[in-house]
Amino acid sequence: MTRARYWLLISLLCITAGCEEENSEGATDTGLADDAASSADVSADTADEDATPTVDAGPDGWDPANCEPSFEAWQRHSKPLVETYCSTCHGEEPQFGAPYSLLDYDALLAGEPGERKVDRMAERLLDGTMPPPTSARLPHTDLDTLVEWTTCGQQHPDHSQGLQASAPVWTAPEDPPSDADHFDVTANAFEIGLDTLDHYECFVIDAPVDADRFMRRFEPVIDDERVVHHLLVSIDRDSDETRDSFRCGGFPPGDGYVYVWAPGQAPIEFEDGGVRIGPDDKFVLQIHYNNGAGVEGVRDSSGFRVYHGPTEGTEYGLASVGSPYIYVRPNSEGQTADSCEVKRDVYIRASWPHMHEIGTEFETIIERADGTEETLIDLTGWSFEAQLIYDTPAQLSPGDKLRTRCKYDNPNDHSVYFGEGTGDEMCFNFMYISPPMDSPCN
């Protein structure tokens, strides 16, 4: 084999395996170089050889000095992921310029906190430079698992990184309404095991009201942020459900969705009125759990808080527009689109775009009856774990149209179709509208 063909082969392998190019000084930057750079500032008293290094907290309060990643979680969850995504370069015998293996637990934890290979690994996962840009992005749950393990559950990846939106996230006033009552809807010390990964649990809770009320404000109540990734709430009206909780994938059952929370979403509040809740209704609270750090003895009671008042003012409901016609071929990009015509006067207060794991872009356009167009919401850099509610007030009139389009990038060796499972896909814009109805185009 000629030298030119040899280096061409190495280059192609590095592109497909995720190895990075050499820097200007000839040193290979794999994102995990064992050099002076580290995920925390480390200083020592050079006059005292026995002095203990001072380790500053890492990003957003992550403290390597207070973290010894679990060996059991490494064996069960994290090592298989490293073998899958990193071992081409960082295997038992490092290749393509990688400085060391990432498969030896003891070697990863050797050294002072802040200077260990596992700390460098965490930093690179958090800042998005590992795997490098030439590699396929890690699935959400796998990235969560690795970050949680390397930081002992102190950190979660920022899934909104790269997300760009045409509208701001809907944010409530800092203080709740002074004249409103409130109640909490939460899980009841739900046990999270060491093997709890990518787990969706639904909790059924009776609405604690004795007459119809308007829910005016929603706030997240996050008990153990080490294991909670997002939550979704539906209302089941006149339900005969007898289970307190059950495992559930896709959307939670019920007659309509009322609230969603993911990291980055602030409380939401209606300026006037709210969403109706009645004494015969039940909440179905779905929580997505992932114990990638292998934290022991976790019992979670996360959920949400509702501020409510009399049925006065504007009544809102959650309606949807979008397309159920989705087919994305293996290892391909695809899109779906739908248009519907508004039949009556409708006010849109906010938008919650929804796709699943292979979604990339989302938009809903208002086409006015006179032919002019307005953007209701436009997203790029979609992340399934960054499902946020956006501030998109708009008044619609008969003859206006809502056009919704979703784009996808399918890295799998199988086709993806419409469905409720996270491995399936969706394309919906759920909107708080008034008057309440299933769709503004009904």
From TrEMBL:
Sorted alphabetically, which keywords does the UniProt record give? Disulfide bond, Glycoprotein
Q: One matching Pfam family, short form?
A: Cu2_monoox_C
Which stretches does the entry tag as region Disordered? 24-64
The record's Gene3D superfamilies line, in alphabetical order, gives: 2.60.120.230, Copper type II, ascorbate-dependent monooxygenase, N-terminal domain
Copper type II ascorbate-dependent monooxygenase C-terminal domain residues:
334-436
Comp. bias regions, Low complexity = 27-45
List the Gene Ontology MF annotations in alphabetical order.
Answer: copper ion binding; dopamine beta-monooxygenase activity
Q: Does the keyword Disulfide bond apply?
A: yes
Domain Copper type II ascorbate-dependent monooxygenase N-terminal: residue ranges:
183-292
Q: Does the keyword Disulfide bond apply?
A: yes
Recorded hits in PANTHER family, A to Z, give:
DOPAMINE BETA HYDROXYLASE RELATED (PTHR10157), MOXD1 HOMOLOG 1 (PTHR10157:SF23)
* Protein name per the record: Copper type II ascorbate-dependent monooxygenase C-terminal domain-containing protein
Organism of this sequence: Persicimonas caeni
